[in-house]
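User:
Can I borrow your eye for a moment on a structure tokenisation matter? Would you put together a sequence-and-structure record for a protein of your own picking? Please set it down just below, with no commentary around it:
AI:
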Amino acid sequence: MADASSINPIPVGLDDGYAFTKIALPDGRLLAIPSRARVGQSGVTWIHEAEQRISEYETEDTVYSVGALDGAPTHFEGYPWSGLNRAVVQHALQQAGLAGKSVHAVSGLPVSSFYRKSGEHRQETIARKRDSLKQAVRPLSGALPAGIAFHEVIPEALAAWYDYVIVELEDGVTLDADRVSVPVAIVDIGGRTTDYVVVKDQGILHASSGSLQCGMLNVKQSVADGIQERFDLESLSEQLVSQAVEHKTVRLQGEAHDVAALVEAAMREVVERIHDETRRQLGLGIELDRVLFVGGGTVALSKHIANWFPHQAIAEHPAFANARGMLKYLRYVCEASDAA
């Protein structure tokens, strides 16, 4: 007899970003892994199997390695419906303990990928993303795959609005009437993009919503270029650059070098671009009740964005705001629609 948990689908909020893939689960767990993968087998044998840090997956007759390796760039237009994306998502689901489970998921697209400027949905793009994650992905370890049986796609920053207005209580769920009734702007600083969504009277104001092609991956690229120039290097591993950005030091030929100035300069450049676009989209935010900052970039840049608006706030665990909102949308909007 099949395990009941493999039949009853597990709802998952799935924020499969260009830099990190975040998962929100109904038991309250939040999980993040780097969106780090490449085509081909890993070429690594672990001395201790328990220390395995790279996993291999096959989808559409192509093998991908995911984990502690130098990943291929994810900042290309087709990433959201690529085999690379599917392998990373499957790895995240495996890490969340969902092997062999049936999954119902909501994921997202950047605002400008989801909507045209007129407000029309980009139906073809949305369908490609929705259908892609339903395709089979086989773990080469022999583990059972997590199968995505249902998948809906929503705009990424709008997911954070759902997280903001849908409040889970011990005795159920409710819409926060005060938050729903006032105009709110979401600024979502991610890996490849910074998204803006303004919601008023439960409607999206498209004139003040959109995407800027700028995020934390721009910081990494700028730091990589600076390190290569300073030390006359032809190339750098993606993992080394990530560690340099996080720790502000880089270890080369057994010696640690301080690169704090490079990192700070890269962050300032990205912050200036995001600040300029934020002013263009939102002005001084005079008619807004709240400007809510979310996304992994908000964590990294928090001290740089601290005083942009007098009525701004940073969401709790901002890197997971979209994933939490996607889970809430799945459980309380999709399920309510199905029941109607």
